[in-house]
Amino acid sequence: MEKIMGKAIFEGIVIGEPYLRSKKQLGIEEYKIEPHMLEDEMNRFEIAIKDAKQDLKFLKSSLKGKVKNNDLKILNVHLMILDDPVLLSEIGKRLRNELVNIEKVVADVVEFYVDMFKDMKDPIYRQRAVDIQDVGEKIIGQLMVENCELNELDNKILVTKEILPSELFKMHHDKINLLGIVTEYSGATSHVAILAKTFGIPTLMGVKDVSRMEWKNKVILDTRKGDPCVIKDPTEEQIIEYKKQKLKLMAIKEENKKLKGLPAITKDGVKVILNANIGGITDLISLNNSMADGVGLLRTEFLYMESKFFPTEQEQIDLYERAYKKVEKLKGEKSLIIRTLDIGADKQLPYYKMPNEENPFLG
Q1: Does 32 score more than 70 pLDDT?
Q2: pLDDT digits (tens, 9 = 90+) for 262-281
Q3: What strand order describes the sheet that includes 219-222?
Q4: What digits encode the pLDDT tens for the residues 295-332?
Q5: CA-based radius of gyration for the chain
Q6: Is 307 contained in some domain?
């Protein structure tokens, strides 16, 4: 038995068979082409772009009404990347200069832009790296006529270094019952984290070296608050205990569903204001579905703790404006209480060293 900790994205308990997926290797061959073959290679590229767009548009239209419009905007970003003149121009220029097959050119250009965006301080720009990678793999997949077998993931817990947003959309569309996700990639503000919460998939992020570990017949994924973890090779006693806890959690969720939307009034008629506790971007995104009266606590430290660098002034302004717009849509008191930065003690920043104190919780 081995217990591995991580960061929970959607609360749940899952007991099931893990499916270890190593990073997809497309096996791109590099070979020289003759100048007279340039037109044919460009035609292949243009057809691949067209097919990739059609796939995304079909996916978007088929999910309309089943997935929130806000979440479907991710697919709009991918469509915009497929039309990006800088990206398309760079691929065409390299093809003419290097005279190698189009698959290799696309892979190299995509890798260049992914690395460039990954090095940026702004987390929004760093997220673009994932989007470009996703689109790049889609183009190469079209060029290589690659078919992804998703059925193997049905009723499994996916263990992978990373998963792309378009893959989650495709699984949802194809009605693949993905029980849970354990991933090395950590980003609570990422599209994957947002979609995992939207689709109700218990997800554990930030688990190091997952692809190097040995995953056997059964694991327990526990993404409840407190100590979110995945348990490898659980004992029979642990499986029995977690099955009991899962039933309790499901009963609580069902009971909470019945209470959602009802006025919060005590037995003697006193109205109680229920405000939301916002501890991350996913909490903010789902605020309007919570039917809370307002925001009783917006924890500003998450903007610092979920980044590798100090957030810029504009990033902080954007957060507050986003929170304000969300609160404006609520039906209750519409209060928004923002807590000033709470860093130190148990909330350390990896990029800023603070001096140790004997009793930092005293303030």
Answers
A1: yes
A2: 888 898 999 888 888 887 76
A3: 2-5, 229-232, 219-222, 13-16
A4: 888 888 877 876 767 888 888 888 888 888 888 887 76
A5: 23
A6: yes
* pTM exceeds cut of 0.70: no
**List of residues 6+ apart from 27 with CB closer than 8 A:** none
Task: Identify the H or E element spanning 15.
Answer: strand 13-16
Rounded CA-CA distance 6/239 in Å is 20
**Does residue 267 form part of some domain?**
no
Query: 143, 176, 205 — which closes off a domain?
Result: 143
Distance CA 273, CA 270 (A): 10
What are the CA-CA distances from residue 343 to residues 150, 190, 315, 346 (Å)? 42, 22, 18, 8
Domain of residue 300 covers 275-362
- On average, the pLDDT of the chain sits at 83
Q: Count of domains in the chain? A: 3
Domain end, chosen from 226, 259, 292, is at 259
Residue with tokens 């792309």: 164
pLDDT reading at 147 higher than 50: no
Assess if residue 270 is contained within a domain. Answer: no
- According to DSSP, residue 118 is labeled H
Q: Do 19 and 39 fall within a single domain? A: no
Residues 69 and 139 in one domain: yes
Q: Hey, which residues does 160 pair with through a beta bridge?
A: 21, 183
Neighbours of 324 (CB within 10 A): 14
Measuring CA to CA, which residue among 302, 246, 306, 297 is closest to residue 274?
297
